[in-house]
Each structure stands twice: as C-alpha cells, then as structure tokens.
Amino acid sequence: MQLVQQVRQAVRLGRLDPGDRLPTVREVAESLAINPNTVLKAYRELELEGLVEARTGLGTYVRGHSGRALPNQAALERELAAWLRKARTAGWEKEDVVAVIETTLRATYATSHGRREGAA
Fold first, then answer.
1. DSSP β-bridge partners for residue 37
2. Domains delineated in the chain
3. CB neighbours of 106 closer than 8 A, spacing ≥ 6?
4. Quick one: DSSP state of residue 58?
5. Which helix (H) or strand (E) holds 23?
6. pLDDT tens digits, 72-112
7. What is the pTM of this model?
8. In this structure, are residues 46 and 10 in contact, taking their beta carbons and an 8 Å threshold?
9. Is 62 helix (H, G, I), strand (E, B) or coil?
10. Cα separation of 67 and 11, whole Å?
C-alpha cells in the first residue's frame, strides 16, 4: 500500500508526468528489499485505477495527472520544509512530526457542520 500511495502522491504533485516510466518490478523489489509479487500487486492496483499502464516488454508508464494543479505548491513546500527543519533542530523525531501533522490535518479539514472527524 505504501508503494501505491507514493506513486499516487508523485503523480498528484507533478513529480511523475504522463509518459514517465516507472522502475521495473525487479528494480523496486531490490531497492526496497520487498517481494517482487508485492510490487507487481501495487502496479496492478495502479493500473486498475487508470494511473499507469503496463506495456508488454517495455515497462509500466504513467498515464496522466490527477487533473488539477495545486496552487502555490512551490511556495508552500518551501514553508513546510523550513518548518520541518525547525522541528528537526528542536529535536523532534519523525513520528512526532507525523503525529502533529495528522492531528492538525484532522482539525483543519474538519467534516461538515463544524464537527471534527471522529467526533460523535
């Protein structure tokens, strides 16, 4: 699932463009030290979603973007990177950062009617 999510994010953020070739199943399996069948399943899921297409004998290629551009992406990424550097300098571990971001996301993107996600 992590591999599927990483490819989705890379396409959504424009880090993978239509026509870009994904690494081979073997390359991914070796670099991540995971079973090739796991990679194959991830690639199949991405293909079923229409995000990539397998070309026999040629590899797996990105089909398209999510269809929407993210406004101010570069500027916001710079701000986030600066904040992350501050957190790291302050001694925060990766898990601390993830916890704060997930909590803040839930609070910021609360569901309709002003209720927070998970609230009764």
1. none
2. 2-62 (1.10.10.10), 73-114 (no CATH)
3. 116, 117, 118
4. T
5. none
6. 878 888 999 999 999 999 999 999 999 999 898 888 888 64
7. 0.60
8. no
9. strand
10. 10
